[in-house]
Design brief:
The chain has helices spanning 2-17, 24-35, 38-44, and strands at residues 48-53, 67-71, 76-77. The protein has 78 residues and is of the alpha+beta class. Strands 1-2-3 form a 3-stranded antiparallel beta sheet. A hairpin with a 4-residue loop joins strand 2 and strand 3.
Length: 78
């Protein structure tokens, strides 16, 4: 469950930046930033830290890439 949740969030965050970010590295950085954001904390009920994402293979809409983070209870999410 946690793997699917973070993967979905990472994809959603890349869609938010798709119009203004051109590079794969930008997508990765924006996903990491989103995972640690207050907006996500309010929506998910967890505050995440230490977010790291793989660089996506593409910047096309629907591209997926792996991310991981630790929640405020110390549990790891992938």
């Amino acid at each position: 469950m946690t793997s699917r949740f973070l993967a979905t969030l990472a994809v959603a965050s890349t869609l938010l930046v798709a119009g203004c970010s051109a590079s794969k590295a930008d997508f990765r950085r924006e996903a990491e930033k989103y995972l640690e954001s207050e907006a996500l904390a309010e929506e998910a009920g967890y505050r995440f830290s230490g977010a790291t994402c793989d660089e996506p293979s593409s910047t096309n809409e629907g591209s997926e890439f792996a991310c991981s983070a630790v929640d405020n209870e110390g549990d790891s999410w992938e």
